[in-house]
Amino acid sequence: MIWLLFTLVFAFLVIGVPIATSLAASSLIYILVTEQGPALNVIHRMVSGVDSFPLLAVPFFILAGNLMNTSGITNRIFDFAKACVGWLRGGLGHVNVGASVIFAGMSGAAVADAGGLGAIEIKAMKDGGYDPDFSVGVTAASSTIGPIIPPSLPMVIYGVVASASIGQLFAAGFLPGLVMALALMAMVAWYAWRRGYPKDARFLLDNLETTFGRAFLSLLTPAIIVGGILGGVFTPTEAAIAASAYAAFLGAVVYRTLSWKRLLRVTFDTIETTAIVLYIVAGASIFAWLLTSNRVTEQFAEFILGATSNPYVILLLINLILIVVGCFMETIAAITILTPVLLPIVMKVGVDPVHFGVIMVLNLMIGLLTPPVGMVLYVLSRVSKVPFERCVVATAPFLIPLVLVLALVTFVPAISMLLPSMLYGAEIKALGAPIGR
User: How confident is the model at residue 183 (pLDDT cuts 50, 70, 90)?
Assistant: First the structure.
């Protein structure tokens, strides 16, 4: 009868029911029809799914990102990034990527990057004479760096579901995020050469010092978050609280751009976003529990491992599955549902859970740039006033460097595991090596 569960979810999604409601309602109907325990199981499992201390980091990272966008911190970051790399040919494209790398160390969410920093970047590129498709494409692609470089909301969710170290996950995302940035900057350079984009600014040491001075306190935010976690001063949850408090202090006391009215709006936006995220986690939790209790995860693992034991082929298949799922399912729901299904498979072929977390999040970030879900595309379409269909076409070329980075990160574990091995003593295992939890 498990086919009934998938049929119900698909039917609900087709008629436009939100993903969290689709998962919860389908699970409830399935339990009632199959008499698999009392209906109260749905509520119990949904509550259990969000009853986790590390998940407290989610609202505070969201709050920190909203405070930065509201307090003018993003403007200072953009100006500093422009002073650093604006002198390159196609300068504002490189600035776009560089600013996203800096902002990634603060927000941990692609949509926050696209909606806050993206609005500033697209306006600046439009005023600088850049083509709208190039502006939207590079902004969309660079926003996916946010959940890879720590902190990262998707990695917090993955860490909770997979019982993996969130500190190690954060460390594992740093080098892949930098590789993504370099790949996107190479793509920007190619566009600049092909379209004849100019250099947008001269490199002036005085300007670099001035913008660095204005952005210095803002740039301390990643040091507080990442340094605190890696140094053992904070747990991820405590680091998120510290980041929110620091962002509020900068906006209210130092920059004096955060009024009570703005703070109230930011608070309500954070509550709304947090409620949506946790509702998705709760709905996906009951769905994942049904898959596990009906041995769907075990049967799928047996099917994959029965077809091949080659770790490279298995990872290739799983990457294809994740990319397809990312096109149709929201990131948090996909992580909550698929982690119990896919993690046992990759562990049997020697893939570290931390390494797999980076692979999964990077796959699903690419999904944010593809229709029909493509949340980043919807946000940028609204921000740039460019039709959604045109945003899809504009972003497509930038998927090439992202997919190449995905392949590199997938098949070269050292890229992800180097920092965790240095900071936490984690082992770097070749694919196919035996591994234990």
Answer: very high
